[in-house]
Design a protein that fits this description.
The complex is a heterodimer of chains A (247) and B (603).
Chain A (H helix, E strand, L loop, with lengths): L1 E6 H12 L4 E7 L2 E7 L5 E8 L5 E4 L2 E6 H8 L7 E7 L4 E6 L2 E6 L19 E6 H14 L2 E7 L4 E7 L4 E7 L5 E3 L3 E6 H9 L6 E6 L5 E7 L4 E7 L7
Antiparallel strand pairs in A: 1-5, 1-7, 2-3, 2-6, 3-4, 4-18, 7-8, 8-9, 10-14, 10-16, 11-12, 11-15, 12-13, 16-17, 17-18
Helix pairs in contact in A: 1-2, 3-4
Chain B lengths: L2 H13 L3 H14 L4 H7 L17 H12 L5 H11 L2 H7 L32 H13 L5 H13 L4 H11 L9 H12 L3 H11 L2 H17 L13 E5 L1 H8 L2 E6 L3 E8 L18 E5 L11 H10 L4 E10 L8 H8 L5 H7 L1 E12 L2 E2 L5 H12 L17 E3 L2 H13 L4 E5 L10 E8 L4 E12 L8 E9 L1 H6 L3 H4 L5 E7 L5 H11 L3 E5 L2 E4 L4 E6 L1 E4 L7 E4 L2 E5 L11 H9 L4
Parallel strand pairs in B: 1-10
Antiparallel strand pairs in B: 2-8, 2-9, 3-4, 3-5, 5-6, 6-7, 9-10, 11-12, 11-15, 11-16, 12-13, 14-15, 16-19, 17-18
The chains are: A alpha+beta (247), B alpha+beta (603).
Function (chain A): Sliding clamp subunit. Responsible for tethering the catalytic subunit of DNA polymerase to DNA during high-speed replication.
GO molecular function (chain A): DNA binding; DNA polymerase processivity factor activity
InterPro entries (chain A): DNA_clamp_sf, Pr_cel_nuc_antig, Pr_cel_nuc_antig_C, Pr_cel_nuc_antig_CS, Pr_cel_nuc_antig_N
Chain lengths: 247, 603
C-alpha cells in the first residue's frame, strides 16, 4: 500500500538528485518515508537518499518496493508548477503508479525491481576531515575546475587549516582556498584526493546553492557529500570514489 | 572465463598466420570457456549477439572514444583518442596504449572487495569476466531514449576502467565490430567439431538451422551429436538466405540436363516466418503457441523489417494456415500491379516511421519462391522440386487452382530446351522483371551459400555493335511499332576489297547474325520506330527491310555456329542494350570480331 501527496518541488528535488547517477532505481516505500540507494554502472558514484514522511502533505506506506524509470517520472513531475501538489498512489494489482496533478492523471508502468542493478553496500568510511560550506561554494569550485581540467583535487591543509581545490589542465591551472572564515565549519585532518569531474559535475547539479553542504574527505579516499533538502526533511548523501593519482 | 584470458588467447590467434593453427587455438579456447562457452564462441568472431538476433550495440566510434578517454586518465578527451587513432590506425592499438584503471570503484572501500552479487557492482579491482562484458554490452544495447548516449558512455567507461592493456585492445575491437583476428565462421565451425568431437558437416547443419554459433557450441559440448541433430529451424529465428552465382543457360543445362527456371524479381529479399494462432503443427517455436498469429519478416541481413511491410503481414495472415518459413522477394508495384524499379522498394523496406503514408505512395507485394519449413517439417534437405510443391500447397487455397493464379507464388518451370528457356526469359523481361534464375531441381537449400545450384543468368558476357538491317511490325498493342530487329555485322574482308566503304559511301557488305526482340520497353520501341521508319526500303507483310543506318549495342550469352543466318553464326539470348548514336554502320563490329569472340576465348 502506498498513497502520498507531495509538493512538486520536493518530489523533483528528490528525483533529480538520483537521476544524475542512474536512469532507473528502486524506491523503498517505508512507513516513515521514502528511501533510495543507487550506484552508477561503473560503481564509482553512489547516492543514498531519504525523504521523511513529514516532507509530504500526507503519506501512507507499509514497506513496499517499486522500480521506476526516473526520466519518465521526472517528466511527469515536470508537468506540475512548483507550488502544485502531486498525488501518488500504487495500484498493487496492476503494479502501476497512478499520478495525479489536479485534473491530469498519469498511469506509470513500473519496472520489475529485480531487473534493476543491485543496490550498493554503503562503505563504512572513517574520514578524518570534514568541511561544511554553502552549496554555492561547491558550485563555484566545480565550475572553476571544469574550465581547465576533467579532474579536481579536494584537500585540507591540516597545518594552515584551510580547505582547497586544485585542478591541473594541460596548460592552465586553478587553485581555490577557503579558510575557516569562508566556511561554515571545518574539522581539520589529513585529506587529499583526486576526483573525476564527470561525476562531480553531475552531483553538483543536484546541490542547491543555498544548502549547507558537508564534505567528508580523506587521503586517497572517497568523498562523502551530504546535504538536506525539503526544509531538512530530505537528506542526500553522495559518495564518489577517487582516482588514483599518478606520480 | 576471465576476460583477460579471452583477450590473451585472442592476441595469440591474432598473431597466428596459419589457418589450421588458428582453428586449433580456437578449439582450445572453446574447450577452456566453461560456463561462458556461448559468449566466447560469439566474441571470438567479433559478435556480441547470435547471428539471428538483430540487436545491435549501436555504438558510434565517438561514443567509444569518449569512454576510452574517460578511462584513460586526466585531461584525455575524445579528440586525443581520435588523434592517436590517426597515428596508429587501429582502435585496438589505441586502447591498448593507454593505462586504464585510474578511477577506483567504491567496492574497493566497502571492505568486501565486491559490493554486489550480480557482478556489475563489483569493485574495479576484481577481474572482468566475459560474462560481465556480455551482460554490460547487452544493457548497453538496451539503452534507448533521452540520455541513452551518455548511459552508453558510462557503461563502456565502467568496462574500460577495469581493462588491462590486452583486454582493452579486444574490448574496443569487439564494441566497434572490428575484431579482425582472422576467425571466420568456417573457423568456428571447424573448432567446434574438433573441440567436442563431432563431424563438421553436422555442426554445419546445426549452424544453418539455428544461426547461432554460441548455442551450437554449447549443444555440441553438452548433448553431442544427438543434440546437434535434434536442432531444428525455429519460427522467429531467421537463417541466412541461399544465394546465387552468375551463370549461363547453356552452362546450367550442361550441368543438370534439366533446369528449374523462374523469374528474377527486381525486389528486396525477404524471409517470412509465420505461425498461425495456436497451431498444432508447431515444433515448439518460441514465438508460437499463442492466440494471435505471429508473423515476422527479415531482410537478407536478418534485420527485422516486419513493421515496414504491413502488406506482407496481411498476406501471411490471410493466406497461410500452417506454420511456415518462406523465402522470397518483396516487389514494389504500381497501381496496375506492374513492377517498379528496386529503388522504389527501398523507400519502403527499412522505413520505421510513417509506414502508412509510404504505403499509400508505393505498394509492395511478396513473391515467394522457396519454402524452408512447412507445418512442423524442416525442408532444408529436401530437393527444390519438393520444396516448391510444398510452397504451392501452402499458398493455394484450392489444390486444383492453376499455379499461375496462386497469389504470391513465383512459378517454377522445368526445361531442358534453350529455346523454351529463352522464351521464359523474354516473358520475364516483358513483364518488367530482371530476367531469370536457373536452379538445380535436385538441390537442397543451403543457407548463406553462394553455390552453383542457383544461378542468376548472366545477361551479357560481351556486347556487339550490330547494324539493324530489318525488322517486323508488331502485333496487337505493338502493331504500330517495329520490333524483332534483324542484326548484321560487317564483313570486313569484303569491305576491304571494295575500298573504304565510308569514304566512298558505297553500300556496306553486311551479314546477318540474329534477331533481337527482348529487353525493350514500349516506350523504347516507339523511339526506335521513329528512328528506323525513315530507313525502310521494302515491306512485305509484317517484314521490313531497312537500309543500314542505325547501330544497336546488343548483349548476348553465347555465339553459336548456325546455318540460319548468312554470317554462319547466331547470337544466343540476344538482348537490346541501346542505340549507338555515336556510330554509323561503317563502324559497327565485324565478322572477324565475331569469329574471334566465338573461338578466341572470352575476355
Amino acid at each position: 500500500m502506498f498513497k502520498a501527496i507531495v509538493s512538486a518541488e520536493t518530489l523533483t528535488s528528490a528525483l533529480d538528485s538520483v537521476s544524475v547517477l542512474v536512469d532507473e532505481c528502486k524506491i523503498h516505500l517505508e512507513e516513515d518515508g521514502l528511501e533510495i540507494r543507487a550506484v552508477d554502472p561503473a560503481n564509482v558514484g553512489m547516492v543514498d537518499l531519504s525523504l521523511d514522511a513529514a516532507a509530504f502533505e500526507s503519506y501512507e506506506a507499509d514497506g513496499g518496493l517499486i522500480g521506476v524509470d526516473l526520466s519518465r517520472l521526472e517528466d511527469i513531475a515536470g508537468m506540475a508548477d512548483s507550488g502544485q501538489l502531486i498525488q501518488l498512489e500504487l495500484d498493487e494489482e496492476t503494479r502501476k503508479l497512478h499520478i495525479q496533478i489536479d485534473g491530469l492523471e498519469y498511469t506509470l508502468a513500473l519496472i520489475d525491481p529485480d531487473s534493476i542493478r543491485q543496490e550498493p553496500d554503503i562503505p563504512d568510511l572513517d574520514l578524518p576531515a570534514e568541511v561544511v560550506l554553502e552549496g554555492s561554494d561547491v558550485n563555484r569550485s566545480v565550475t572553476a575546475a571544469d574550465m581547465v581540467s576533467d579532474h579536481i583535487a579536494l584537500g585540507v591543509d591540516d597545518a594552515a587549516e584551510y580547505f582547497y581545490v586544485d585542478a591541473e589542465g594541460d596548460t592552465d591551472d586553478v587553485h581555490l582556498e577557503l579558510t575557516q572564515e569562508d566556511l561554515i565549519d571545518l574539522q581539520v585532518g589529513p585529506a587529499h584526493s583526486l576526483f573525476s569531474l564527470d561525476y562531480l559535475k553531475d552531483m553538483n547539479k543536484a546541490i542547491p546553492a543555498d544548502a549547507e553542504v558537508t564534505l567528508a574527505l580523506g587521503e586517497e579516499f572517497p568523498v562523502k557529500i551530504y546535504f538536506g533538502f525539503a526544509e531538512g526533511q530530505g537528506q542526500v548523501t553522495y559518495m564518489l570514489a577517487p582516482r588514483i593519482q599518478s606520480d | 572465463m576471465e576476460f583477460a584470458t579471452f583477450a590473451t588467447r585472442a592476441a595469440t590467434i591474432d598473431a597466428e598466420p596459419a589457418d589450421l593453427e588458428i582453428v586449433d587455438h580456437v578449439r582450445a579456447l572453446l574447450e577452456a570457456a566453461g560456463e561462458d562457452l556461448e559468449i566466447v564462441a560469439r566474441f571470438v568472431q567479433g559478435r556480441v549477439f547470435p547471428a539471428w538476433d538483430s540487436t545491435t550495440l549501436d555504438i558510434g566510434p565517438r561514443t567509444c572514444y569518449e569512454a576510452i578517454a574517460r578511462a584513460a586518465g586526466t585531461n584525455v578527451d575524445a579528440d586525443d583518442v581520435e588523434e592517436r587513432l590517426a597515428d596508429r590506425g587501429e582502435i585496438g592499438d589505441v586502447a591498448a596504449s593507454y593505462d586504464f584503471g585510474g578511477q577506483q570503484g567504491l567496492g574497493a572501500f566497502t571492505g568486501r572487495g565486491d559490493a554486489g552479487g550480480d557482478g556489475n557492482t563489483g569493485s574495479n579491482g576484481g577481474e572482468l569476466t566475459t560474462r560481465e562484458v556480455a551482460e554490460t554490452l547487452s544493457d548497453l544495447a538496451a539503452a534507448d531514449g533521452a540520455g541513452s548516449q551518455d548511459r552508453k558512455v558510462d557503461l563502456l567507461f565502467g568496462l574500460f576502467n577495469r581493462c588491462s592493456s590486452v583486454e582493452a585492445r579486444y574490448l574496443s575491437r569487439l564494441v566497434l565490430s572490428e575484431m579482425r583476428i582472422g576467425v571466420g565462421e568456417g573457423t568456428v565451425r571447424d573448432a567446434i567439431a574438433a573441440a567436442f568431437d563431432v563431424p563438421d558437416d553436422r555442426v554445419e547443419r546445426a549452424l544453418q538451422v539455428s544461426n547461432d554459433y554460441g548455442r551450437v557450441a554449447r549443444v555440441a559440448r553438452d548433448a553431442g551429436l544427438e543434440g546437434l541433430d535434434a536442432m531444428d529451424l525455429e519460427i522467429g529465428r531467421p537463417v541466412q538466405a541461399m544465394l546465387a552465382q552468375a551463370g549461363t543457360v547453356m552452362g546450367a543445362l550442361k550441368d543438370w540436363d534439366e533446369a528449374g527456371v523462374e523469374w528474377k524479381y527486381d525486389g528486396a529479399r525477404i524471409q517470412l516466418h509465420h505461425e498461425p494462432p495456436s497451431s498444432p503443427g508447431s515444433n515448439g517455436a518460441p514465438a508460437g503457441a499463442n492466440d494471435a498469429a505471429t508473423t515476422r519478416i527479415y531482410s537478407r541481413n536478418m534485420e527485422d523489417v516486419t513493421n515496414a511491410l504491413p502488406e506482407v503481414v496481411e498476406f501471411a495472415e490471410e493466406t497461410l494456415e500452417q506454420p511456415a518459413i518462406l523465402d522470397g522477394e518483396v516487389v514494389a508495384v504500381d497501381d496496375a500491379g506492374e513492377p517498379l524499379p528496386f529503388q522504389e522498394v527501398l523507400k519502403r523496406f527499412r522505413r520505421k516511421h510513417d509506414v502508412a503514408k509510404a504505403r499509400e505512395e508505393i505498394s509492395v507485394r511478396p513473391v515467394f519462391f522457396d519454402c524452408l519449413h512447412a507445418a512442423g517439417e524442416d525442408l532444408l534437405s529436401e530437393p527444390l522440386t519438393r520444396r516448391h510443391d510444398r510452397l504451392e500447397q501452402l499458398l493455394s487455397a484450392d489444390e486444383n487452382l492453376d499455379p499461375a493464379a496462386v497469389d504470391g507464388l513465383s512459378l517454377l518451370w522445368f526445361s531442358d530446351d534453350p529455346e523454351a528457356i529463352e522464351s521464359i526469359d523474354a516473358e520475364a523481361l516483358e513483364a518488367g522483371h530482371e530476367g531469370i534464375m536457373l536452379k538445380d531441381p535436385d538441390s537442397t537449400y543451403s543457407p548463406g551459400r553462394r553455390g552453383k545450384h542457383w544461378r542468376k543468368r548472366k545477361p551479357d558476357i560481351e556486347t556487339l555493335d550490330c547494324v539493324v538491317t530489318g525488322a517486323e511490325w508488331g502485333e496487337g498493342r505493338r502493331a504500330t511499332f517495329l520490333g524483332t530487329f534483324e542484326l548484321s555485322v560487317r564483313d570486313g574482308d569484303a569491305s576491304e576489297k571494295r575500298g573504304s566503304a565510308r569514304s566512298t559511301g558505297a553500300p556496306q557488305h553486311l551479314e546477318t547474325i540474329g534477331k533481337v526482340a527482348t529487353g525493350i520497353t514500349d516506350e523504347t520501341l516507339a523511339e526506335l520506330t521513329a528512328l528506323l521508319e525513315p530507313h525502310i526500303v521494302a515491306e512485305d507483310g509484317q517484314d521490313v527491310d531497312l537500309e543500314p543506318a542505325v547501330v544497336f549495342e546488343v548483349g548476348y550469352e553465347e555465339i553459336q555456329s548456325s546455318p540460319t543466318y548468312s554470317s554462319g553464326y547466331a547470337l544466343r539470348f540476344p538482348r537490346f542494350v541501346g542505340v549507338r548514336h555515336d556510330k554509323d554502320p561503317a563502324e559497327a563490329d565485324t565478322l572477324e570480331r565475331v569469329q574471334r569472340l566465338r573461338y578466341g576465348g572470352r575476355r
